[in-house]
Structure formats: C-alpha cells, structure tokens
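It is worth pausing here to work through a concrete case rather than discussing structure prediction in the abstract. The textbook approach is simple: state the sequence, then state the predicted structure, then interpret. We follow exactly that order.
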Amino acid sequence: MIKYIISCMIIALNLNSINGILISSSLNRNRNRNTIKMSYDVCPDYLTKFTNSFDTEQSEMIVKGTTSFLTKVDGIGGYILHTNDVIINFLLNNELLNNDIKKSLILQLISLSQAGDATGHQILQFYYDLVNCLL
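Step two, the predicted structure:
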C-alpha cells in the first residue's frame, strides 16, 4: 500500500514539475478561499430556495442527520495524519532516495493534506450555512 501511495506521489511530483504553474496556482486559489465568511443573519441564495420549503420539524431532522453524518466523517482527518506519519517515516528511512526527492515527496504529501483540509473547511462552511438557514 505504501509503495502504491509513493508511486502515485512520484507521478504527481513529475506532473507538478511539468505543469507546475497550473497546480501551484490552483493551490494558491484554494488557500485564498479559506477565509471565514460566516454571516449570522444571511442565508445564501443557493440554500434559500430549498430551506424555505421545510417546516420546523423537518429542519431539525435535517440538522440532526447532517450532524450525525459529520461526526462519522470527522475520523478521516486522524486517519490521514496517521498515514502521513507512516509514509513520512518510510520516506525518511529509505536510503534509496536522495534528500531532494524525499523533501519533494514529503512536501507533496503535505500539499495533498492541505487540499483535504480546505475541502473540510468548505464542508463545514456549507454545514454552518445550512443550520443558519434551517433553524
């Protein structure tokens, strides 16, 4: 499994060096979107057209279901961090790779984790907006 992940990272690293402008610019765009936009009184238009059709009981059921789902998904972050720990130790202990390759692979792994974290932020923003609109 580790060999598969590392081979995927090497391929991604090669693509990054070929197409670095597109990848780095898309990562920078994602970082800029991570600003907190929570507004306490405004329901976004993309939710208003759906949330207005629910009564109080239905709204509460949706919030409870979403909350339950998110608590189950939350464990993924810990699993990813543990997997990063295993892969990084494997890379650092590998004598076949030079330091530049080790550094590049580890930084690529961290970039992938940052992208996952940015996705988590977007999910929590949607969850916040959903609860704000429903209750």
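Step three, interpretation. The chain has one domain: 2-36+43-134. The mean pLDDT is 78.
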